Amino acid sequence: MRRGPLFPRRVQVGRLVFRDPLPACGLLYLLLYFDSSQFLRIGLLAACLHECGHILAFWTLFRRLPVIEVTVTGFCMQTRGCRMGAGQRFCLAAAGPAANALLALLAWAQASRQFTAWGAAFWAANVLTGLFNLLPIPPLDGAQMLAAVLERRRTGRNDKLHSPFK
Question: Which of 7, 47, 54, 90 has the fewest CB atoms lying closer than 10 Å?
Fold first, then answer.
């Protein structure tokens, strides 16, 4: 397929970068059209909230918003060119699964008062999203966290995390 203005490979809107937007939007449309159980919508919500955890941590650490790349396979925060210590990289990678853990805890607390199918699905989507992202497989968060721990061990540095969360 010839790429041109009608079928761009990359579209940027502010800090959002869409890679191959036509296939991504087409696939998303088809998946949502056939999602009668609504679980895909809840899973996408959990994934978006996961990325919001990363974005909030990035903003807290660097006082600016990151570039978010949206592709057929999902969302990815671009940190190339951003100088970070091992502690900052660990904190940034852990923020997404931590957001899912917090949301799963809140969904569990709500379900203990009033059980709904949507609440159970939201809890499950957050648990699954958080646990999946903890796998030590690049480019998932678990691999980023493991690399940060190994870097800190290798360099022998015991520098403090310059965290604004104090």
Answer: 7
The pLDDT, as a whole number, for residue 2 is 52
* Among 82, 105, 83, 92, CA closest to 139: 92
Paired residues of 13 in beta bridges: 16
Q: Which two tokens stand for residue 41?
A: 């919508």
Residue 94's alpha-carbon distances to 37, 42, 91, 135, in angstroms, are 30, 21, 5, 12
What distance in Å separates the CA atoms of residue 30 and residue 120, rounded to the nearest whole number? 25
8 A C-beta contact, residue 126 and residue 100: yes
Instruction: Please give the model's pTM, rounded to 2 decimal places.
Output: 0.84
Which regions of the chain are under pLDDT 70? 1-6, 157-166
Q: What was the pLDDT predicted at 98?
A: 98
1 contacts 7 by C-beta, under 8 angstroms: yes
Is the separation of the CB atoms in 53 and 98 below 8 Å? yes
Per-residue pLDDT tens for 96-131? 999 999 999 999 999 889 989 999 999 999 999 999
Question: Distances in Å between the alpha carbon of 35 and those of 32, 40, 47, 78?
Answer: 5, 6, 16, 30
